[in-house]
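Backbone-to-sequence.
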């Protein structure tokens, strides 16, 4: 199915001018996608038939509504489940907005969940039901949907959540797999454009008993941060200056041309160069256990904490797998979220980077941790200070 979608996407992007009309209402556009779109009722019908055969009554499950927060922060949650499964109610509102991604004023017509790149991280427990309301306000111009890598069926929900401007939909799925997972927009024919325009986020499905080292030892965290790595593809003019466009549709042909080079103009953490440095640096204290959730919806990445380590690392983010220990750098494949737990042992400024150092230092994939506390000379000391010969 994915190979078919990719082939269809290439053909369509070459054949049609991506104006608002063709993206939303072109009969040729819809006709080309008919095989996928008509499959959705079949999926729904099968689900209805299965429900009749084996009804599951969730009407008596407690409901809990969570208020999402802007990354790198994460909404309040318990690390261990309290009681049985719940229905977790979440709302994501799609915002199309222009953002500036570097100090030189490079602009992206971003597509976002709740206005941030990445979208908010959602936290639930295994076997909870996620009931998502997805809103596409009438002020937007494009069609959108959502694909949860944590969900089962209907293209991760993408086949059931296609919304035009002025529409909303409600999707419910059971979180059966424990781990951290990517979610992203995946509208028919325009998947990479939406994903590389910032329309992705992460969901963390915690084991009901909490995290462990895979050998019975409980693992807990004092803080959790969500770092969303994003590749942008901003076109340049003949003078090497970043181009600016009135609308996303105006930018699309040039952006697509840059995308096809597979060479990003920017690779950033949380939407812009420097978004997690300086005054926006992540905070911690010596002795605190910090869980870092890191997602990359499109490209491979290799996080590294300069001056620290990953005490426990789930590089592909799945908590049934025992974590690797004492890692220096970990590999997160594109389309995946990973998690690393570290107890800070020294004060100071730590750089958290994609250890493709060109991407970190030249394109923007870097963050800082500012850590307070007392220096431990047993771990490190200056024996001879730098001096002239």
């Amino acid at each position: 199915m994915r190979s078919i979608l990719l082939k269809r996407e290439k053909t369509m992007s070459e054949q049609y001018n991506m104006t608002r009309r063709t993206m939303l209402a072109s009969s040729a556009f819809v006709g080309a996608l008919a095989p996928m779109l008509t499959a959705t009722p079949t999926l729904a019908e099968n689900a209805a038939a299965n429900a009749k055969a084996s009804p599951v009554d969730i009407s008596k499950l407690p409901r809990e509504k969570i208020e999402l927060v802007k990354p790198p922060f994460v909404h309040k949650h318990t690390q261990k489940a309290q009681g049985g499964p719940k229905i977790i109610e979440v709302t994501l509102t799609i915002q199309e907005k222009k953002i500036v991604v570097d100090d030189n004023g490079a602009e992206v017509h971003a597509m976002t969940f709740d206005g941030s790149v990445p979208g908010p991280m959602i936290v639930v427990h295994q076997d909870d039901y996620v009931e998502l309301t997805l809103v596409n306000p009438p002020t937007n111009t494009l069609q959108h949907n959502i694909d949860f890598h944590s969900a089962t069926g209907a293209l991760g929900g993408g086949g059931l959540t296609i919304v035009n401007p002025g529409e909303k939909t409600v999707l419910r799925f059971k979180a059966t797999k424990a781990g951290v997972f990517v979610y992203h927009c995946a509208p028919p024919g325009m998947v990479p454009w939406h994903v590389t325009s910032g329309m992705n986020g992460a969901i963390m499905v915690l084991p009901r008993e909490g995290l462990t080292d895979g050998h019975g030892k409980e693992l807990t965290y004092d803080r959790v941060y969500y770092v969303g790595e994003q590749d942008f593809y901003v076109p340049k003019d003949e003078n090497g200056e970043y181009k600016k466009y009135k609308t996303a549709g105006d930018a699309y042909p040039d952006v697509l041309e840059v995308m096809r080079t597979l060479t990003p103009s920017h690779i950033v953490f949380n939407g812009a160069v420097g978004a997690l440095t300086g005054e926006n640096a992540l905070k911690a204290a010596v002795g605190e256990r910090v869980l870092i959730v890191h997602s990359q919806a499109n490209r491979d990445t290799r996080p590294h904490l300069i001056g620290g380590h990953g005490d426990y690392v789930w590089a592909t983010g799945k908590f049934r797998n025992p974590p690797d220990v004492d890692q220096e750098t970990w590999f997160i494949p594109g389309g995946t979220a990973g998690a690393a737990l570290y107890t800070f042992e020294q004060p100071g400024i730590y750089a958290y980077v994609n250890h493709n150092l060109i991407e970190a230092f030249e394109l923007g994939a870097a963050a800082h941790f500012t850590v307070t506390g007392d220096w431990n000379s047993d771990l490190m000391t200056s024996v001879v200070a730098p001096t002239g010969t």
